[in-house]
């Protein structure tokens, strides 16, 4: 398996623009998580899905953020409109209920810069 | 809010020495996990210990859990330069696949 695949790796956008981050989890994994990492706040859970259904979105900062998982192999995190304070590295991770001892598998992240 | 807090924030050791990193948390947990992050990369899962376990080993890694003190430690024996990375503890509550809350991490530098 190629692991969790995120795209793009880097994104630079202007304030006010829409940004879409993409994630392909590991095949067979039934949990998908979106995290954001900054120096100031560390790793923050934004939202997670189980079997494509959003379970907890309490970490989503505000209505500008939305996430979808239309099928088991794809998820998006959208920010509209983007602001400079959204600049961070966004990670997607997946895991399997059947292989819980193996923890999460993280993607390489998307480094977002909003100017 | 951050649940796990790692200690120390940074650690520098010589190759071959052992590295001990600590994690404390505030509320009862179901499991505690340790992850490694190399610069510019995603996190990699190292080991998971459940609340009813006290110690686990995996290769050069040894993790302990003391639920009475709400603390865990990660020991890396015979460290190598390749162990240089940030290490995070993460706490889970309602099962191994529930959401994890990560600490801010420990920066480990292993000098060749």
Uncertain residue ranges of chain B:
none
The interface involving the most residues is between:
A-B, 25 and 20 residues
Could you tell me how far the N terminus lies from the C terminus of chain A, measured between alpha carbons in angstroms? Answer: 36 Å
- In which range does the helix fraction of chain B lie? under 10%
Average pLDDT rating of chain A: 95
Please tell me how large the radius of gyration of chain B is: 13 Å
Largest sheet of chain B: 6 strands, mixed
What proportion strand of chain A? over 45%
Alpha-carbon Rg of chain A, integer: 13 Å
The shape of chain A is globular
> Tell me about the biggest sheet of chain A?
7 strands, mixed
Class inferred from helices and paired strands of chain B: mainly beta
Rounded average pLDDT of chain B? 92
Q: How many β-strand stretches of chain B?
A: 11
Can you give a write-up of this model?
The complex is a heterodimer of chains A (115) and B (112). Chain A has 115 residues and is mainly β. Chain A has no helices and 11 strands. In chain A, the strands form 2 sheets. In chain A, strands 2, 4, 5, 6, 9, 10 and 11 form a 7-stranded mixed sheet that branches. In chain A, strand 7 and strand 8 (74-79) form a beta hairpin. Chain A is globular. In chain A, 37% of the residues are buried. By secondary structure, chain B is an all-beta fold. Chain B is built from no helices and 11 strands. Chain B has strands at 5-7, 10-14, 19-24, 31-37, 43-50, 55-58, 61-66, 71-76, 85-92, 100-102, 106-111. In chain B, the strands form 2 sheets. In chain B, strands 2, 4, 5, 9, 10 and 11 form a 6-stranded mixed sheet that branches. In chain B, strands 1-3-8-7-6 form a 5-stranded antiparallel sheet, with no helix packed on it. The termini of chain B are far apart. The model of chain B has no long low-confidence stretch (mean pLDDT 92). The interface between A and B is medium-sized, with 25 and 20 residues.
């Amino acid at each position: 398996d190629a692991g969790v695949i995120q795209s793009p790796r880097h994104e630079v956008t202007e304030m006010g623009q829409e940004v879409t981050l993409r994630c392909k989890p590991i095949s067979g994994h039934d949990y998908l998580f979106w995290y954001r990492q900054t120096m100031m706040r560390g790793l923050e859970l934004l939202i997670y899905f189980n079997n494509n259904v959003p379970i907890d979105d309490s970490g989503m900062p505000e209505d500008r953020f939305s996430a979808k998982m239309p099928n088991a192999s794809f998820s998006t995190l959208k920010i509209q409109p983007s602001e400079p304070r959204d600049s961070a590295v966004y990670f997607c991770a997946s895991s399997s209920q059947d292989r819980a001892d193996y923890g999460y598998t993280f993607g390489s992240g998307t480094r977002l810069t909003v100017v | 809010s951050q649940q796990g807090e790692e200690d120390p924030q940074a650690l520098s050791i010589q190759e071959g020495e052992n590295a001990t990193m600590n994690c404390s948390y505030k509320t009862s947990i179901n499991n505690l996990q340790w992850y490694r992050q190399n610069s510019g990369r995603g996190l990699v899962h190292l080991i998971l210990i459940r609340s009813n376990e006290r110690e686990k080993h995996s290769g050069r890694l040894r993790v302990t859990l003391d639920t009475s003190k709400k603390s865990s430690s990660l020991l890396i024996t015979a460290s190598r330069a390749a162990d240089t990375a940030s290490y995070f503890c993460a706490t889970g509550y309602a099962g191994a696949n529930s959401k994890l809350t990560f600490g801010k991490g420990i920066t480990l530098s292993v000098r060749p």
